[in-house]
Amino acid sequence: MPKTCLCALLYLSLINDTVLQYSFINEKCSFLKSKQSFRTTIIGAQWTVASKIKCLAKCLEIYSDSCQSFMYNTATLKCTPGANVQDGLFSATSADEELYVKYPNFRVQSYLSTSICAIFFNGHKTYSDARDICRVYNAHLFVPRSAESYALFKSMIDLSQNAWVGLNDVDVTWKYMAEDDGQEMDISSILSLFAHGGPDHYQQQHCITTFIESEGQLEDEECDSKNTFVCQTEFSNC
């Protein structure tokens, strides 16, 4: 019997209706109830089961490590096994559907006096897809608030590839909205982090990314470009 199957059958528990956790010897893993209304790519047929715990148990039993998420419909009791969030194509869920995702390995990252709880994703996604992946994990794209926090961010990413930060002016040009609090950010406070003194909106570029040609300084870029990214969440999730 696969180890993950044994974990599911013997050590599965529900924590506060938001976290399903299983453990095996010293190994623990959690499936988090997402606040985001999205479903991931389906990896198999639906089942009818009496509870979300049994839904996860069957997903792990049949698909083992491929079971990275699942949908549970509280009205129909339908259980749908799902893929890794990073590999998924999202579609809206109904009001009765709950998405649970295998929680990634968020870690406390520190540099000088700055610390964050975050994880680097090496997959290349558009700005909106990267933002949605972070939201599925109840997190947000990293937002540079200071030179020190940005230095920490750069220590986490691969500087040979561009990486999104959580700033865009898609709705109103020159009005940069931050993903961490949903408020407008005074871009003048971080102009020193930009490669050419600030964004220039060349060819309608409305999202902010690192720029490999300038050793990781910031630039604006088309939001449909595909870059790596960092998700940040609360310290309680680390």
UniProtKB/TrEMBL annotation:
Query: Which keywords has UniProt assigned to this entry?
Result: Disulfide bond, Signal
Q: Which residues form the C-type lectin domain?
A: 113-232
Q: Keyword Signal, does the record have it? A: yes
Which InterPro entries does the entry link to? C-type_lectin-like, C-type_lectin-like/link_sf, C-type_lectin_CS, CTDL_fold, Pan_app
Q: Which PROSITE patterns match?
A: C_TYPE_LECTIN_1, C_TYPE_LECTIN_2
| Pfam families listed in its UniProt record | Lectin_C (PF00059), PAN_1 (PF00024)
> Secretion signal: which residues?
1-21
This protein is called C-type lectin domain-containing protein
What organism does the UniProt record list as the source? Lymnaea stagnalis (Great pond snail)
Q: What is the lineage of its organism?
A: Eukaryota, Metazoa, Spiralia, Lophotrochozoa, Mollusca
